[in-house]
């Protein structure tokens, strides 16, 4: 623990003075806002951005559309075919990509200062005039189908899919990001172009920037990159979903030597005032790696697994606390029993003051480790924007964590850690014996 905090302090000392706590709000002449942290030590610029519209918006029967479209955003744009577009990126050492999660479609651009204008022009072209040529679509369709086939044979993927279906039911969050073998075969370039043209709009755009640029230069650059996008997008209408109030155990038989265990229960959203208490509780439970109770009880004391962990997942319309690991088939039942026993123990008895102090020391000291490069800084700023935490959050963060009391943590533990509400998925042969 002391080692982690000392390392964090060393990293913090190496960062530019502004980078630790003081992002700038930059608004372009066209009204596009970005948060910026300048760092002129290295001639590199990193941009991150996102739009409302992740794969939860995939149309029924065309699951995988958003993920599929993302794979093609660097496969040609405007008058540049795939080969020409990618050669320009490679020749100038420009990193550009688009990816999606449940709620948002995100992009990134990392470029040397000397190639900044070219990188911005190529990214703008990809966002506003993606080609979705038939050759590229069919090539990436084959790759996507191959990836799906591989996932269907992966026990961890099977467990994740079964858990998502169990906790989200008919909600859009339940469907697979890549889609299915059947749905991917129905998706066309026209489908992708239609989706991208609707979702990539300035009204839901969030931008974060870090690196070798000042505010005066960034403003016009934002318009150059995003100014060609539509002003508005169709309203997103996705309902919130609560996880099941009654837990259950689902077994998926597979002829493998280990059982993969994946479990979830209701969590708290990032916007919930109890988030900080829940995060500290989770660190003690299973988020603190070898410092966690789950690792101590299941791995260290009994040797049932190489690793077991827990984590909080917060989305626009759902929140969960998830946990799991892998163990031998013959010890799967014991693994789950111990998991539930630790939930009950923490709910009934809470955490100790020492555990809480160690969790606070780690969390307050770990922030600089997320700010060791322009990529990481831009990604962190974008996450702050998506979570609506405010531009002064980095200054307030440690105080918010340190303000959490032992009573706060134990109250959220009692609220969340009811083993009877835990939905458990086991993939393997959990009823097998030696």
Superfamily (CATH H level) name of the largest domain? Metalloenzyme, LuxS/M16 peptidase-like
The name of the CATH topology of the largest domain is Cytochrome Bc1 Complex, Chain A, domain 1
End-to-end separation in angstroms reads: 39 Å
Q: What's the SSE pattern?
A: HHEEEHHEEHHHHHEHEEHHEEHHHHHE
CATH architecture of the largest domain: 2-Layer Sandwich
Mind telling me the CATH class of the largest domain? Alpha Beta
Major sheet description: 6 strands, mixed
Radius of gyration, in Å, reads: 23 Å
Task: Label the structural class.
Answer: alpha+beta
What is the overall pLDDT average?
93
Give the count of helical stretches: 17
Shape label: globular
Strand residue content: 15-25%
| Poorly predicted tracts of residues | 1-20
Task: Describe what is shown at a glance.
With 434 residues, the protein is an alpha+beta fold. 45% of the residues lie in helices and 18% in strands.
What does this structure look like?
The protein is 45% helix and 18% strand. With 434 residues, it is α+β, with helices and mostly antiparallel strands. The chain has two domains: 206 residues, 2-Layer Sandwich (Cytochrome Bc1 Complex, Chain A, domain 1); 163 residues, 2-Layer Sandwich (Cytochrome Bc1 Complex, Chain A, domain 1). The strands form two sheets. It has a six-stranded mixed beta sheet with strand order 1-2-6-3-5-4, with helices on both faces. A five-stranded mixed beta sheet has the order 7-11-8-10-9, with helices on both faces. The protein is globular and about 60 Å long. The N terminus is likely disordered.
